[in-house]
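Hello K.,

You asked for the raw outputs rather than the summary table, so here they are, unedited. I folded two proteins back to back in the same session to keep the settings identical. This is the first:
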Amino acid sequence: MKQFFYKMIVEYDGTEFSGWQIQPGKRTVQGELKNFIEIYTRQEIKLVGAGRTDSGVHAVGQVCSFSTNIDYPPEELHYRLNRMLPHDIAIRKLNRTYTGFDPRRRATMRDYRYYISENPKPLARHYSFRSYRVLNIQKLNRVARLYLGKHDFSLFCKAVSRKENNECIIFKSRWFRYDGLLIYEVAADRFLHHMVRRMVGLMLAYEKSKINLTQFEAFLNNRTKDEVRFSVPACGLVLNEVTFGKVKR
């Protein structure tokens, strides 16, 4: 039977979710989306996402796909699903795509941003990490640049989450300020479990002089047996964008 494939760009508030991936007995983004798509289409579907965000992590540019044996007009499907979805998930864009489109395998770059409030900002409390002081952005960017390129990030995830190959290529790594927030942008071909939060945690440890540059480089270049213990809360992390095709460096 012929299948019609659809691509969606999805935004969600991860506060009340146990991450993206379906888990028995837990509320997840993938589980909610799959459930409501199946209710509307009245058929079982396979929903594939480009990134597996952790519990409490948000997204404005998650990309996912599914197929049905009915050729639904994209505009109608987009409207109907958004009417059905809970308040913390929204489909920003929905259109047809080519047969067999798999966003997880086809994605060439994933862009995340981590938000830090340096001053009281009540409306951002669920979507940023509060630092209680103004941070030294020059010092943060000094070590952020060291992440660029290909590195083995084995020490930036839990031992049980490590894979046979833990190398990732970092295309972007920079700090900047916007709208009263300090923001870290990082983009890579892939990310390991908890990797971004530990990358941020290690940079903050350096900024606070809890570690020196030699110690920072030891973690990055695997010259120590200890995994990175510094981390930051999930609430400040957002999957910003997913890229397909050639990556501009």
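The second followed immediately with the same parameters:
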Amino acid sequence: MTPLPEDNRIQPVQDDENKGNQLFPVFVKLNNLHLVLIGAGKVGLEKLTAVLNNSPFTKVTVIAKDIIPEMHALAAEYTGVKIINKSFAEYDLDGADIVMAATNDNDLNVYIRQAAHDRKLLVNIADKPDLCDFYLGSVVQKGDLKIGISTNGKSPTFAKRVRELLEETLPDSLDNVLDNLKEIRDQLKGDFEYKVNKLNEITSIFKNKK
């Protein structure tokens, strides 16, 4: 294994807590990217499951010395997932687009973060908010409707409870509503502003309904 660096040049970013959640929400087309995941224990399995549930065609390379059987079983269901049984080295990130780490070795986590930043890659380190460039939020999905929930890394458990509440509250038929709205949008004539105003008028029923 490549020796751990003595000087970790990139320092954790300290958020100004007085300014609230400053994270920028974005939905990434992971199906078009190469994800490298370091760690194949229970937390690694959780991360891989979340990725594949949302973007099942993502190319994923898992790097780990210790691999739980459930990880092999999950990987066998997806042609884009490859597991390599080895210790992490910097060159494992060659060709990667995004990085996730799920190890319980803090020195290794810092090393992975540095290696990712040296390649200008965004990285998520499990249970280490100060080392993360992005978080994996709880997700509510009803067909094509997808809602991401963030607590700014403070309480994934609370985000999970909000997700459960929304899953129970939002009807499964919402996807039919989206299909109908898309059909209406495609049939509308006029410029962009007219279409926006017309769709706002049509969907105002959701806001005004008691």
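The chain has six helices and seven strands.

Happy to rerun anything if the numbers look odd on your end.

Regards,
P.
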